[in-house]
Amino acid sequence: MNWISDWALPKISGLFKREVPENLWHKCPACEQMIFRRDLEAALHVCPHCGHHMRISALRRLECTLDEGFSRIELPKAPADPLRFRDQRRYSDRLKEAQAKSAMDDAVAVAHGTIGGRRAVVAAMEFAFMGGSMGAGVGEAIVTAAKLAVLQDAPLIVFTASGGARMQEGAISLMQMPRTVIATRLVKEAGLPFIVVLCDPTTGGVTASFAMLGDIHIAEPGAMIGFAGARVIEQTVREKLPEGFQRAEYLLEHGILDMVVKRGEMKATLARLIGLLREPLVLPPPAAEPETPPPAEEAAPAQG
Ligand SMILES: [Zn+2]
């Protein structure tokens, strides 16, 4: 028995122990630098050292996109666990747990308000809620957001983050693909812009439906966007995939995206886009060119 480790060290560390909140610092998963949590929060969860965009919650997304005073809307309840699905655990238990952890009913939050003073309806997906998977609840939320946009004559902006279909809802989750596609048609038929902001990661059924039907496709830097995972594709095509495959920058280069926008500039970019799409540019009538320059100006000598 060692008296130093068993007796002396606990006493000494007890003397110096202070109340330090454990989550004061956050380690960047990309560059592994430590970031003071308050700084990280202020930087909208973008690493100040390497610019890595970390995932943020749907509610935080609404806060940093919409102007103050926006209102979140209550979404219609979707049938919970229609198939009474169970794997290692009941789906209904998983749902309850996710709901308690995120304070959301399902993986989408919808709000309406203004962005830079211009009206907008924003839907944000929550990846932390069962991987942002799309079941009836998510489908319902997108349809509701689209209807609200039409009702309010406002553009629809959707921030996507999803692992794909919610397998616990089987075919019902697949039915959300055509449903959400129809929802985007509603917005387009009303002549309203539909802007998709693809966040890390956007995959599977969400990529294969409404996420690729925007009038404008924006992505956050480094976001993984694709249908199937890179490993599955590599095994299928038996070829080495190019560097940066399925990342936002690669997709921008190959014409899938219109823009890659940093989180800190997202709100201003959206406000500008809505302005351009909603308010036709009114150019001042061309000024008639004077045939002879007014002599008064020429004659005016520079004073001083
Ligand atoms: Zn970093």
UniProtKB/TrEMBL annotation:
GO cellular component: acetate CoA-transferase complex
Region (Disordered): 284-304
MF GO annotations: acetyl-CoA carboxylase activity; ATP binding; carboxyl- or carbamoyltransferase activity; zinc ion binding
Co-factor: note: Binds 1 zinc ion per subunit.
Keywords carried by this UniProt record: ATP-binding, Cytoplasm, Fatty acid biosynthesis, Fatty acid metabolism, Ligase, Lipid biosynthesis, Lipid metabolism, Metal-binding, Nucleotide-binding, Transferase, Zinc, Zinc-finger
Catalytic activity: N(6)-carboxybiotinyl-L-lysyl-[protein] + acetyl-CoA = N(6)-biotinyl-L-lysyl-[protein] + malonyl-CoA
Zn-finger (C4-type) residues: 28-50
GO BP term, pick one: fatty acid biosynthetic process
Residues binding Zn(2+), per UniProt: 28, 31, 47, 50
Keyword Ribonucleoprotein belongs to the record: no
Residues annotated as domain CoA carboxyltransferase N-terminal: 24-292
Leading EC class: transferase
Membrane-spanning residues: none
Pathway: Lipid metabolism; malonyl-CoA biosynthesis; malonyl-CoA from acetyl-CoA: step 1/1
Pfam family, one: Zn_ribbon_ACC
Localization per Swiss-Prot or TrEMBL: Cytoplasm
PANTHER family: ACETYL-COENZYME A CARBOXYLASE CARBOXYL TRANSFERASE SUBUNIT BETA, CHLOROPLASTIC
Family statement: Belongs to the AccD/PCCB family.
Known function: Component of the acetyl coenzyme A carboxylase (ACC) complex. Biotin carboxylase (BC) catalyzes the carboxylation of biotin on its carrier protein (BCCP) and then the CO(2) group is transferred by the transcarboxylase to acetyl-CoA to form malonyl-CoA.
Protein known as: Acetyl-coenzyme A carboxylase carboxyl transferase subunit beta
Organism the protein comes from: Neoroseomonas alkaliterrae
